[in-house]
Every structure is written in structure tokens, then in C-alpha cells.
């Protein structure tokens, strides 16, 4: 890594032991903003995410995004020599990320207490379903299950129907965000202490989703209210909903500000509702929610989505379309904001998403797409651990790398 790299995490070395989504997404975020991320994968096929969903030449398109900027090495952590090499890598690292089941790293002699004497400044980041402690710690912690336990799934869907999930592994991604945030906080704390002492960052998937629950907890504690699923609306805020237009497309309308509501209903041809004293504030509109939604649904159903959005924009009412990924690729704002980064994989162009936040002076960037399994093994073992080419060749022969 260049010493002149202006990105905020330049010079920080991360050893990533995670697989699939949560740990690797945290590593992806750190690598984008300049950290040197060395991803440790099992020999052979590597991280299972390389084979998930749509493939190109045997490797998933997804891997090229989540594996960006990472150096891929292979180590058999079930072998004694593989664990010794992993420990050597951790000795001089700033950060470790792992998302195995609690106690797995300890069983390999690679847990926080095993490393602390060798590297007291290490920020040891652990991601699991339920955290490292408590009665659920040993349970398998898939995002789908943890989203349910967190309370997130309960409020999603339509009343009377089964709770629904977004068509994404959102629990993993949110946990990865929390882990990356925790890493940066721990690094900042280490720097401010002037003691070069690290700590453990303990991230649970269910707690990461629990963190998104807004007013659900205090409303239950203070008023005994259990927030129920509410379809495409948000409980207690009116109007904010999704409406089907004449052309079959959907639009989202957020007209819940008092003055915005007046402009919305006037644009929708209902000046009587704009002036209705029952609807002058949000509390009143909540009582009239069905009436308001019927009026807006009827108005949208009679017009194409483009016409609806044009009239609402003229009235300064927050509104927008429901985009598919194909819509994003044709949108000029996405392009102007640089939300797609083009990389080359095996001689072919591929667009992957840019990562935010956007920093004006020290922005992140994609240096290379997700690399092939073990493509940096020899360089890392030679440059960082001082192994000779002959020693590395023997490790390959023994199946350690």
C-alpha cells in the first residue's frame, strides 16, 4: 500500500477470517477506505460466496463486489501449521474480523485471549448471530432467524399475513456495517489512549437489527403499544404510502408534513381535504388514514406514474418511483453521483456499486475487484512472514495453503 494513499484507513492492516456476508462486508467497507485487508480462505473453493447466485466463469458476480480491494490467501485452519501461520499474521495486524460460531476461534487457539499477549493493540472484531455471551450464544445465527428475533420481521408485511423479508440478507449487511463502525471506534479509542491497547468488538446480528427499531421499545415500555405490521405504510404517520398508477407502476408519496399535505391534496384534486379541519395535523390524519389513502389511490389509478410524479414535483411534494436495478442504470442522478464503478474481470467490463459515505477530501475507491482464490498467498507469506519460495511450495504440497 502506498504511503501517500490519502484514504482514512490507509496503513491499517486487517486480517479477515469471515465467510459469506457479514464479516466480508465489514472487510469490504474497510478496504474501500484504504485498509489493507488480507482475507484468509480455506484452500480449494475459498469463501462459499464465490459460488452463490449468478456466476461468470464459475465465480459469482457478487464476489467481485464484496471481495474488492482484498488480498486473498488460503490457509487450512484445521491444520496445526495453518493455525500457526494465522497467528503470525495476527501478531502484526491492527484488526481481526471473524464471524464463526462463538468458541470456534478459541478451539483453534486463535481467540482474543490467545492473541492478546502477542499483540495487545489488536482490535478483535467478532460477528455472530446472538453475540459471544448469553444463553443463545451457541445457537446457529443465520440472518433470516436473527431478523425475526430482533423484532424487525414482526413489523414487516400486511396485517393478518405471514411476516415478510426484503429479498436481501439485510441482517448480515447491517451487522457488517455495525462491525465496521465498531472497528473505527476501537481504532479511534486506541489512538486517543496513547496506550496502544486494543479491545474486542462484539457484534450480534439480532442486536444490529434491534438497533433499527426506532420508537418500538419506548412505546411498548411507556404505553404498552405493540407495533403491528402495516403493509406499505408506517404506523402513526399519514400519509406515507405506495400507490399503483394507471400504467401499472408504483409511486411512493410522503405527504405527512402539514403544509405538504395541503399541497398534495390540492394537486390530487381534493382541495376539500386539504382544507378539512380534521386533517390539519398528523394526529387528525391518522384517524382519517383510510379516507386519505382511498383518495390518493383513486387519483393515482387514473394517471400514468410519470404524470403523477410530475404534478407532485411541481407541488413540492416528496415522491418518487419504485426502482428496479434496471431503472437505476438509466437514471442520470445515479450516474452523476458516481454510484457505479466499472472494473475489469477476465477482460470483461463489470459494474459494481460504489460505497458510501462520500468523503470530499479522502474518498474511498475500488482498486481491484474480488481476486481469485489464494492469488496473494505467496506474496503475503513471503513479504509479511518472510517465508521462502521453497517453504511456500512445501505448504502447497502439504495442503496447508
Task: Describe the protein's architecture and organization.
The chain has 401 residues and is of the alpha/beta class. It folds into two domains: 13-211 and 338-398, Rossmann fold (3-Layer(aba) Sandwich), CATH 3.40.50; 240-244 and 250-321, formyl-coa transferase, domain 3, CATH 3.30.1540.10. Helices cover 38% and strands 15% of the residues. The chain contains 18 helices and 13 strands. The protein has helices at 22-32, 61-66, 80-91, 104-107, 112-116, 143-149, 170-193, 205-210, 216-223, 258-267, 271-274, 282-287, 289-301, 305-314, 325-330, 332-336, 377-383, 389-398, and strands spanning 13-16, 36-41, 55-56, 59-60, 70-74, 95-98, 123-128, 200-204, 240-244, 250-254, 319-321, 340-345, 348-353. It has a six-stranded parallel β-sheet with strand order 5-2-1-6-7-8, sandwiched between helices. It has a three-stranded antiparallel β-sheet with strand order 9-10-11, with helices on one face. A two-stranded antiparallel ribbon has the order 3-4. A hairpin with a 5-residue loop joins strand 9 and strand 10 (250-254). Helix 1 crosses helix 7 (170-193). The longest helix is centred in the middle third of the chain and has 24 residues, at 170-193. The model has no long low-confidence stretch (mean pLDDT 96).
Amino acid at each position: 500500500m502506498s504511503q501517500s494513499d490519502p484514504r482514512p484507513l490507509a496503513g491499517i492492516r486487517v486480517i479477515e477470517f469471515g465467510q459469506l456476508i457479514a464479516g466480508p462486508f465489514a472487510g469490504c467497507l474497510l478496504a474501500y477506505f484504504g485498509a489493507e485487508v488480507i482475507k484468509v480462505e480455506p484452500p480449494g473453493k475459498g469463501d462459499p460466496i464465490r459460488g452463490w447466485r449468478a456466476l461468470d466463469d464459475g465465480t459469482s458476480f457478487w464476489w467481485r463486489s464484496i471481495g474488492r480491494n482484498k488480498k486473498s490467501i488460503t490457509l487450512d485452519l484445521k491444520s496445526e501449521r495453518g493455525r500457526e501461520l494465522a497467528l503470525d499474521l495476527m501478531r502484526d495486524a491492527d484488526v481481526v474480523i471473524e464471524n464463526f460460531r462463538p468458541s470456534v476461534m478459541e478451539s483453534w487457539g486463535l481467540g482474543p485471549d490467545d492473541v492478546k499477549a502477542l499483540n495487545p493493540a489488536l482490535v478483535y472484531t467478532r460477528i455472530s448471530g446472538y453475540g459471544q455471551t448469553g444463553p443463545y450464544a451457541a445457537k446457529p445465527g443465520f440472518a433470516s432467524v436473527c431478523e425475526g428475533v430482533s423484532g424487525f420481521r414482526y413489523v414487516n408485511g400486511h396485517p393478518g399475513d405471514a411476516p415478510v423479508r426484503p429479498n436481501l440478507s439485510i441482517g448480515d449487511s447491517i451487522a457488517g456495517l455495525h462491525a465496521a463502525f465498531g472497528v473505527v471506534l476501537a481504532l479511534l479509542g486506541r489512538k486517543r489512549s496513547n496506550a496502544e491497547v486494543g479491545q474486542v468488538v462484539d457484534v450480534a446480528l439480532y442486536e444490529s437489527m434491534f438497533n433499527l427499531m426506532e420508537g418500538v421499545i419506548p412505546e411498548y415500555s411507556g404505553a404498552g403499544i405493540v407495533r403491528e405490521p402495516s403493509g406499505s405504510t408506517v404506523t402513526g404517520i399519514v400519509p406515507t404510502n405506495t400507490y399503483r398508477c394507471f400504467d401499472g407502476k408504483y409511486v411512493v408519496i410522503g405527504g405527512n408534513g402539514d403544509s405538504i399535505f395541503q399541497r398534495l391534496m390540492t394537486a390530487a384534486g381534493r382541495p376539500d381535504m386539504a382544507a378539512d379541519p380534521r386533517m390539519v395535523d398528523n394526529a387528525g390524519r391518522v384517524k382519517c388514514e383510510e379516507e386519505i389513502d382511498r383518495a390518493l389511490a383513486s387519483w393515482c389509478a387514473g394517471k400514468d406514474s410519470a404524470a403523477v410524479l410530475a404534478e407532485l414535483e411541481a407541488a413540492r411534494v416528496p415522491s418518487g418511483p419504485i426502482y428496479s436495478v434496471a431503472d437505476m442504470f438509466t437514471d442520470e442522478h445515479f450516474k452523476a453521483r458516481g454510484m457505479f464503478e466499472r472494473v475489469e474481470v477476465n477482460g470483461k467490463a463489470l459494474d459494481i456499486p460504489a460505497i458510501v459515505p462520500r468523503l470530499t477530501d479522502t474518498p474511498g475507491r475500488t482498486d481491484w475487484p474480488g481476486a481469485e482464490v489464494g492469488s496473494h498467498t505467496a506474496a503475503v507469506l513471503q513479504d509479511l512472514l518472510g517465508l521462502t519460495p521453497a517453504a511456500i511450495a512445501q505448504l502447497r504440497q502439504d495442503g496447508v495453503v
